[in-house]
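Help wanted!
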Amino acid sequence: MRGTPHILLVEDNRMDVELTIDAFREAGMGNTLHVAGDGDEALDYLFGRGPYADRTEYPRPDLVLLDLKLPRVDGFEVLRQVKSTPGLKRLPVIVLTSSKEEGDRALSYDIGANSYLVKPISFDGFLGVVKQIGGYWLSLNIAPPEERQ
Amino acid sequence: MGRTGILQGAATGRATRPVWSLARLALVALIPAVAMFSVATPTFAAARTVRVGLYENEPKAFSAESDGEPAGIFVDLLKEIAVQEDWQLVWVPGTWEEGLQGLRKGRIDLMPDVAYSTERDASFDFHTTPVVDSWSYVYAAPGVRVDRISQLIGKRVAVLRDSIQETVLTQMVAGFRYDIEIVPADSLQEAFRMAAEGEVDAAVANHLFGDYFYLQEGLSKTPIVFNAVPLFYAAANGENHDLLQAIDRHLDAWIAEPGSVYYRTLDRYTTKDKPGGIPSWALWTLGIGAALLGITSALVALLRWQVAIKTRYLKTANEALASAEEMLRLATDAAQEGIFDWNPKTGEMTWTPNSFAMFGFEPDEFPINFETWSALLHPDDRERVIAVELERLDTGDHSFQIEYRMKTKAGDWLWVASRGKAVTLDREGNAERVVGTNMDINSRKSAEEEVLRLNAELEARVAERTDRLAVANKDLESFSYSVSHDLRAPLRAISGFSQILARRHRADLNEEGTHYLDNIVQASERMGMLIEDLLTYSRLGRQAVRSEPVSLGDLVALLATDLASRIEETGGSLTIPSDLPTIDGDSTLLTQILTNLLDNALTYRRPHVEPEVSLGWYEEEGDVVLTVADNGIGIPADYQDKVFNVFQRLHSDDEYPGTGIGLANVKKCVDMLSGAVWLESAEGTGTTFFVRLPKERP
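Answered by r_m:
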């Protein structure tokens, strides 16, 4: 872990983004949250393309929080590309969605999701989830080694 | 001749009183002696000696048994002529052959009973008027039945040696190439004796001899007649013309005169009821006639009676037969059945008119046999019918029952059912004769096809409807899923931001503002519950039911842990049996069921009464019945069958919080596990839910 952990939140719902940011702030984890509003943007960020070419401003994230229902390119496609790309495939991706669907769960794990979380409706519940993500993924969990390219 | 005699006799007899008949018969008995005496009387004024050959050929010429005196048709007639012509007759006995030989050598002057032939004409002279016509019959030995020449094939037939019959029969046999063994006999008596004793199967004789003797010898007269020949007296070539002329003269005169000595002589030798001849034919006839009248009358009466009986019997039999035939015809008509009779070995077949009519043909319009029949079979049925079904004729119970299509005269296909049974089997047990019925089953087949078609149509419609329903259901489920799913995001926003507001900015609000904010938080919590339950409900219908062994003990232990805080809160208790079984099921569904029931049991408690919930189970007919009993408020009888409906609530949310979906979820889960759920409840004392589940699922 190099300094402040960077988290990429892939989420199209503005209010969910605000709630997440608020929750992270209230949880006081001192991380940096980058937001991508759809699948395309997420891939551009992850692959360092276009407006995200500058890795100092947009560094490679340590964790991805990925919504599944996204306009244009959906969360599964983002996950598939991340997990099949050398240099990206070890990146922990946490699916954070409203869906409890068996099919969604199965497919997510099949294509390499590292975790699957359902967004609680209440803010307290949501806050709890965010806190636990931080506690587990950003401190307890040992990050994968970077791949040699 | 015989006919004339009988008529005369009958006529006379009718006028005679029966008493006289016996007297006349007695008189008849005296006559032969008188007749013999008169014939035997020598004529001393004879100028001419005539030597006559005499061979034994009764009744034409023979030596009488009684005294050796010559007798017979030819003998008697010649004696009559001799009397009138003043001839001295000298009889020269010998065989037929010796007689002819004697004629040639001049040792005799006349030979009686000689059939004319061109061959003989060369050696002998004949007079002109035949004495009698003779024809030959075949007489069969006792027990041998012969009705036609061909039936003589392979048999032995006795015939007079060197006779005309021998020549003719030999030619006939050669001509027809019949394999008949001709056995020459030295005399006709010998031939008949051979037949009577079974040395030969039949004997040939002229009718004069044959008819005279066959009954006496126990032979039977066959209908085979041949070789009609005129018989004459013969003289040596160029000799004794005066004798021949005299014979002609007398014969011509006698033949022209009915009742002459000629006819009387012939009559005498027609039947041999009594040995010897009876010279007085009139008396003889009279006597016989009288007797015959009585016998005939009796016979006629007897015959009439028998005929009447026979007729009546025949009539009855005929009527019975006709009515049986009519009944069979009507029955087969009514049943629309035709009858067939078939020989599988030769292919020969017979059809009743019904069988033809069934296919639009006239009776016997075409020759029916196995070949023509199978040619009419539908190509799709032919192999099955011939190869498979008809095979059964030679095995098992030797019968068949087949349904197939056959071409009608109009060229359509007609469904036919044939039933047949082998009525005759050969030594190998194969069918030799098969009789059975053909039946038009077209309407039945059409009806069957119609039923099949309607069924298929119905099934297709049901399938289509089911598909549409499934699609609609799926649409509805995915709709309710996506609606509740999509509602979660805004709800989370409402609930999230109202909580943030309540937490960080409560101080900035007055009392009214705080109250409203609390309302928003509370409503959004409730809406969250609703959405969760709805999502569960719609998800239940869309996921596959797993079947795996589930330990109810383990499952309930987990639930109890989750519920522990709530139980503690209420001060109540949950009793769990230690021997909960393991059943085949889906743990998710089972969890849903028990969670909801236990949650309800804890929720709907009576005010100020600590909830006592007990879980139990028992086994019934291989199923497991789980019970969840509480001491709560109970469910009014009117609502007991409604509580499993979606959104059915009995209480306001303020009294008891709930979504009205919990028991609907239970019901849906139980249904998916092929189980049943019901309840027993008394208002104010508690409720027991029963969940019956198969222990093992297929």
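OP: Thanks! One thing I noticed: Residues 1-43, 274-278 of chain B have pLDDT under 50 and may be disordered.
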